[in-house]
Amino acid sequence: MKADFWFDYASPFAYLASTQVPGIAARTGAELRWRPMLLGALFRAVGQVDVPLASFSEAKQRWVLQDIQEWADWWQVPFRFNPYFPVRTVLPLRVTLGHPDPEGFARRVFQATWADGLNPAEPGVLVDLGADPALVREADRWKPALFAQTEEAQARGVFGTPTFDVEGRWLFWGQDRLEQVEDVLAGRWSPAA
Fold first, then answer.
1. What is the pLDDT of residues 5-22, one digit of tens each?
2. How many helices (H) and strands (E) would you count in the chain?
3. Could you give the maximum distance between any two Cα atoms of the chain, in Å?
4. Could you give phi then psi for residue 189, rounded to 5 degrees?
5. Where are the domains of the chain?
6. How far is CA 111 from the centre of its chain?
7. How far apart are the C-alpha atoms of 7 and 127, rounded to whole Å?
8. Is the CB of residue 126 less than 8 Å from the CB of residue 89?
9. β-bridge mates for residue 171, sequence order
């Protein structure tokens, strides 16, 4: 089976999902494609505010931040809310599209952003994470590809990250749906189409 993992580094929930995706792929034998997209552009296209967290009440903001930490604790992965939030991700997303190992690079960017507290919009950070300096300097050439992927995500019904599109039939939004994603990919469950 196949699934697309739609993500943007701006989302701490996408980071959490990224820590689990390799295990899901290994356990199910599924082909999981890492698909970067521009979350801010998608939000504008679907009528969502750019930074949903900022639009929540104070009580809901506290709960969401605690929820993120609880998921990190549950999966025993490091987490540190990024001091540069809202994180600017255009450059790292473009570099990911041009990188020879997009999954490995994406995993390092997520780790740097949401565990180490680094700013992925800094070219030097991307080079330190394994991006060729020429790729970083010429990242604008990947602008059309990033817009095309974002438009494709929207056309598929994606409205946030992380989203998993399994076999072009089922969409699962959120890191809290990964158990369902894994069961579908393993053939243990088939949701209503």
1. 999 999 999 999 999 999
2. 11, 4
3. 47
4. -155, 145
5. 2-185
6. 12
7. 21
8. no
9. 165
Query: Using only C-alpha atoms, what is the Rg of the chain?
Result: 16
pTM exceeds cut of 0.90: yes
CA-based nearest residue to 32, from 66, 4, 55, 11: 4
Quick one: 144 exposed, middle or buried, by C-beta within 10 A (0-12, 13-18, 19+)?
Answer: exposed
Q: Can you list the alpha helix ranges (DSSP code H) found in 121-177?
A: 123-128, 133-137, 143-155
What confidence tens digit (pLDDT) does each residue in 180-190 have? 999 999 999 99
Question: Residue 33 forms beta bridges with which residues?
Answer: 4
Three-state DSSP class for residue 31: strand
**Listed residue (110, 87, 108) closest to 14, CA to CA:** 110
Average pLDDT over residues 112-122: 98
Kindly report the length of the chain: 193
2-185 is classed in which CATH architecture? 3-Layer(aba) Sandwich (3.40)
- What region, left, alpha or beta, does residue 168 occupy, with left being phi > 0 and alpha being psi -120 to 50 degrees? left
- Separation of CA 138 from chain center: 23
For residues 87 and 90, what is the distance between their CA atoms, to the nearest angstrom?
9
